[in-house]
C-alpha cells in the first residue's frame, strides 16, 4: 500500500514528473549526438554485412560525394546494330533505363546516364555514363598451389611499375586481394580501336611473363617388346616435344638419368578453355599433356605456379562490367566420352590414356566431349541474387538463381538427363565456362546456384544485377574512357567549406548577442542539427552533390528560422507577464503551427521535385529533393524537441532564469521574472 502511494505521489507531483521527463529527454539527445559523432569518426564500417561510408581519400568524414565534388569515371559507348537492324528510339530509351537501373542497384548514386546524338529527328547512337568516385581498382589474383608469397607480389608491382600505393591482403584460400587508388584506362582512336592497353591488362601480361610455371612429370616404366628392357623417355625427347609446341624457353631437368621423372619450368602458360566465340578449346596444359603422352604412359602430371585467378573489380573495371555486358547465362548439355567402347576391337581408353586418366579427361578435354543446347531459356530466369556457399567449411561467393515454372521443368529435365548418362551440365557466363557439374538425380524446385573460380563478392553482385536487369536491346562498344575531375577542385572545396564555417560562426554570434539565452540554445541546436544531418546522410548512403549542398544550406535556414520564431513567441509571452517556464511552453505551442505548415509545404514541393526527377531521370533534381526532405524533417526535430528540452533545463537554473536573459536586445520588460 505504501508503494502504491509513492507511485501516486510521483505521478501527481508535476515538478518531479517534469524533472524525470527532462532528464530522460536530455539523455536521449546526448545518446543521439554521441552515436552520430561515432558514425562520422569512422570513415567506413559495416553493419549487418552492409558497407557504410566511403574509404575514398577525397571523401569528407566518409560521406559519399557526387561526381561534381569528387570526380569519377566518364564512359562513352557506341551502339552496335544487331542482326543488321538499326536501333529505334525505343531501343535507346531501353538501354538508358537498364543502365540506370544497374548502376542504382549496385549502390552508385547520382550517376548520370544520357543519350548522345539524335539531332534533327535522328536516333541517338551513343550513351554517356558518368559515375562518381569510380577511379581505383581491386584485383583478386591466385597462383596455382600458392607458389608466390604476399611479399613477392608486392615487390613485383613496386619494382616493375612503381606502384607504392598498393595495398595487399591474403584471403583464406591463399589468393591475394590488391587495392590501388587509381588505374589508367585503355585509350582508343576515333574508330574505337585500342591504342594502348589498360594498366590491369599490362599487369596480367607481365605477371604471366615474369612468374615461372613448374611442371612435375613422371612416366610409368614400360618394357620393350623386343629386348624386355625398361623404356624410359630421354631428356632430349621431352625437350623436343616442348620446342615443337613453342616452349623454347623451357628449362628441363631429369632427377636421375635412369628415372622417368622430370621437372619443367617456363613462363607464359595460357589456361583459357574457350575461344573468342565461347566455344570450348584445348588449353595449353591439355595440349602439353597430350604431346608428352606420345613418349609413354604418364604416371603424374602436376602444374604449379600459373596465374589461376585474375579478377578485376571496383572502380572503372567494375563499372564497365556492370554497364556494357549483358551477363548472358547459358546451360549446355555436355555429352562426355564413353566409359567403354561399343566395339571390342577398338583399344580403349583412346590415345594411350589409362583408365584413371580417361575418367578425368572424358568430361574436361574438348577433344573427347560434345556440347549441345538445353531447353533452359534466359527468359525463364525469375530472380538472381548474390549468396554465400559454406560447403566444405569454406565460404565462397555464389549467385543463386530462381526459375519460373517453365524454367524449373526444363532444369529438372536437364539434370535428370545428365544423371542417367553420367554426363555434365556446363554453365557458361558471357561465353566463359564457370563450372560443369554432374548430378545423381533430377533437381526439382526451380532453384540453382552458379559458382566460379574467379568469383568475388563484387563480381557475384554485378552478375546478379546484370541477370535481373535483363539483356540490353542493342550491343554497346566502349569508344571513350577517362577520369573526370570534380566541378569544384580540392582547393575550391576547402575554401567553400571554410567560408561556410565562418558564416555559421557569424550567424551563431549574432543569435547569441541578440537573443541571449534563446540564441545560445539556437546555436547549440544548429551544431546538433549539423551532426545529426551528416550522420543520417552517411547511414542512408546519400550522395552529396553541389545541388545537395544547396539543399543542406536551405534546410539550415529553415532550422534557424524555426528557432527565431520560437524565441520571438517566447518573448511575447514573457512581455505579457508570464513566468519563464509557462512562457517557453506557450511560445513553443504558438510557434509550432507556423513551423509545421511551412516545413510541410516544403516537403510537399520536395516530393514533387523527386517525382519529376524520377520521371525524367534527372538525378540532380532527385538528389536535391531527397537531401532537402531529410534536412527539413531533422530541422523540425531539433528545433521543436531539442531546443525545448535545453531551454526548459536552463530556465530551471535560478541564476539565469531571468526574463531579461530570455528576451532580445532592446526589449524592456515591465516584469522581470
CATH superfamily of one domain: Multidrug efflux transporter AcrB transmembrane domain
Pairing-aware structural class of the strands and helices?
Answer: alpha+beta
Strand order of the largest sheet: 5-6-4-26
Classified by CATH, the class of one domain is: Mainly Alpha
**Percent of sequence in beta strands:** 15-25%
Query: What would the average pLDDT be, to the nearest integer?
Result: 77
> What is the CATH architecture assignment of one domain?
Up-down Bundle
Shape category:
elongated
- Termini gap: 41 Å
Radius of gyration: 35 Å
Helical amount: 40-55%
Number of helices: 17
CATH topology of one domain: Multidrug efflux transporter AcrB transmembrane fold
- What is the β-strand count? 27
Poorly predicted runs of 5 or more residues:
1-15, 669-673
Instruction: Please summarize the sheet with the most strands.
Output: 4 strands, antiparallel
Protein model, in words:
It is a single chain. The chain is α+β, with helices and mostly antiparallel strands and 673 residues long. Among the domains are: 2-54 and 488-662, Multidrug efflux transporter AcrB transmembrane domain (Multidrug efflux transporter AcrB transmembrane fold); 137-208; 212-304, Alpha-Beta Plaits, CATH 3.30.70. Helix content is 44%, strand content 21%. The strands form 9 sheets. A 4-stranded antiparallel β-sheet has the order 5-6-4-26. A 4-stranded antiparallel β-sheet has the order 8-9-7-18. Strands 15-16-12-17 form a 4-stranded antiparallel β-sheet, covered by helices on one side. β8 and β9 (176-180) form a beta hairpin. α4 packs antiparallel against α12 (457-469), α13 packs antiparallel against α14 (517-539) and α14 runs antiparallel to α17 (619-651). The two termini are 41 Å apart.
Amino acid at each position: 500500500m505504501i508503494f502504491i502511494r509513492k507511485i501516486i505521489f510521483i505521478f501527481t507531483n508535476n515538478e518531479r514528473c517534469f524533472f524525470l521527463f527532462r532528464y530522460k529527454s536530455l539523455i536521449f539527445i546526448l545518446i543521439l549526438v554521441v552515436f552520430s559523432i561515432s558514425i562520422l569518426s569512422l570513415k567506413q564500417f559495416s553493419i549487418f554485412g552492409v558497407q557504410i561510408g566511403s574509404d575514398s581519400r577525397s571523401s569528407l568524414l566518409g560521406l559519399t560525394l557526387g561526381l561534381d565534388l569528387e570526380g569519377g569515371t566518364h564512359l562513352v559507348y557506341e551502339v552496335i546494330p544487331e542482326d543488321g537492324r538499326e536501333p529505334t528510339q525505343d531501343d535507346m530509351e531501353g538501354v538508358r533505363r537498364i543502365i540506370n537501373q544497374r548502376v542504382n542497384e549496385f549502390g552508385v548514386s547520382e550517376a548520370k546516364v544520357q543519350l548522345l546524338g539524335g539531332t534533327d529527328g535522328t536516333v541517338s547512337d551513343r550513351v554517356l555514363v558518368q559515375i562518381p568516385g569510380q577511379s581505383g581498382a581491386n584485383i583478386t589474383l591466385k597462383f596455382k598451389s600458392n607458389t608466390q608469397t604476399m611479399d613477392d607480389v608486392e615487390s613485383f608491382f613496386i619494382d616493375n611499375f612503381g606502384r607504392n600505393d598498393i595495398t595487399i591482403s591474403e584471403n583464406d584460400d591463399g589468393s591475394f586481394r590488391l587495392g590501388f587508388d587509381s588505374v589508367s584506362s585503355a585509350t582508343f582512336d576515333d574508330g574505337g580501336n585500342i591504342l594502348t592497353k589498360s594498366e590491369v591488362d599490362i599487369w596480367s601480361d607481365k605477371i604471366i611473363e615474369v612468374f615461372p610455371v613448374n611442371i612435375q612429370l613422371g612416366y610409368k616404366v614400360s618394357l620393350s617388346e623386343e629386348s624386355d628392357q625398361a623404356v624410359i623417355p630421354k631428356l632430349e625427347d621431352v625437350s623436343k616435344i616442348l620446342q615443337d609446341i613453342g616452349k623454347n624457353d623451357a628449362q628441363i631437368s631429369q632427377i636421375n638419368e635412369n628415372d622417368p621423372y622430370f621437372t619443367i619450368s617456363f613462363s607464359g602458360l595460357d589456361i583459357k578453355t574457350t575461344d573468342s566465340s565461347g566455344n570450348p578449346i584445348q588449353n595449353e596444359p591439355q595440349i602439353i599433356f597430350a604431346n608428352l603422352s606420345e613418349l609413354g604412359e604418364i604416371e603424374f602430371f602436376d602444374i604449379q605456379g600459373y596465374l589461376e585467378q585474375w579478377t578485376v573489380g571496383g572502380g572503372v573495371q567494375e563499372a564497365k562490367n556492370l554497364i556494357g555486358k549483358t551477363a548472358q547465362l547459358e546451360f549446355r548439355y555436355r555429352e562426355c566420352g564413353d566409359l567403354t567402347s561399343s566395339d571390342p576391337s577398338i583399344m580403349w581408353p583412346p590415345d594411350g590414356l589409362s583408365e584413371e586418366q580417361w575418367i578425368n579427361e572424358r568430361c574436361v578435354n574438348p577433344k573427347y566431349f560434345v556440347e549441345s543446347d538445353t531447353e533452359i531459356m534466359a527468359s525463364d530466369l525469375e530472380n538472381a541474387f548474390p549468396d554465400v556457399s559454406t560447403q566444405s567449411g569454406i565460404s565462397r561467393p555464389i549467385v543463386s538463381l530462381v526459375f519460373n515454372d517453365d524454367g524449373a521443368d526444363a532444369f529438372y529435365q536437364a539434370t535428370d538427363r545428365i544423371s542417367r548418362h553420367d554426363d555434365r551440365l556446363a554453365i557458361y557466363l558471357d561465353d566463359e565456362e564457370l563450372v560443369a557439374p554432374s548430378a545423381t538425380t533430377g533437381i526439382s524446385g526451380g532453384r540453382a546456384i552458379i559458382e566460379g573460380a574467379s568469383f568475388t563478392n563484387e563480381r557475384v553482385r554485378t552478375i546478379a544485377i546484370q541477370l535481373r536487369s535483363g539483356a540490353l536491346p542493342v550491343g554497346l562498344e566502349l569508344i571513350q574512357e577517362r577520369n573526370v575531375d570534380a566541378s569544384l577542385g580540392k582547393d575550391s572545396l576547402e575554401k567553400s567549406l571554410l567560408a561556410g564555417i565562418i558564416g555559421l560562426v557569424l550567424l551563431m554570434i549574432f543569435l547569441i548577442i541578440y537573443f541571449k539565452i534563446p540564441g545560445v540554445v539556437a546555436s547549440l541546436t544548429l551544431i546538433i542539427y549539423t551532426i545529426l544531418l551528416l550522420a543520417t546522410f552517411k547511414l542512408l548512403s546519400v550522395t552529396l552533390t553541389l545541388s545537395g549542398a544547396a539543399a543542406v544550406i536551405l534546410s539550415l535556414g529553415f532550422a534557424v528560422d524555426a528557432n527565431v520564431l520560437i524565441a520571438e513567441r517566447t518573448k511575447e509571452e514573457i512581455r505579457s507577464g508570464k513566468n519563464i517556464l509557462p512562457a517557453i511552453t506557450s511560445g513553443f505551442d504558438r510557434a509550432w503551427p507556423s513551423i509545421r505548415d511551412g516545413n510541410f509545404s516544403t516537403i510537399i514541393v520536395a516530393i514533387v521535385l523527386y517525382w519529376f526527377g524520377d520521371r525524367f531521370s534527372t538525378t540532380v533534381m532527385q538528389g536535391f529533393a531527397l537531401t532537402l526532405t531529410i534536412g527539413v524533417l531533422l530541422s523540425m526535430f531539433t528545433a521543436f524537441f531539442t531546443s525545448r528540452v535545453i531551454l526548459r533545463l536552463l530556465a530551471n537554473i535560478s541564476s539565469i532564469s531571468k526574463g531579461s536573459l530570455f528576451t532580445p536586445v532592446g526589449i524592456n520588460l515591465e516584469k522581470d521574472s
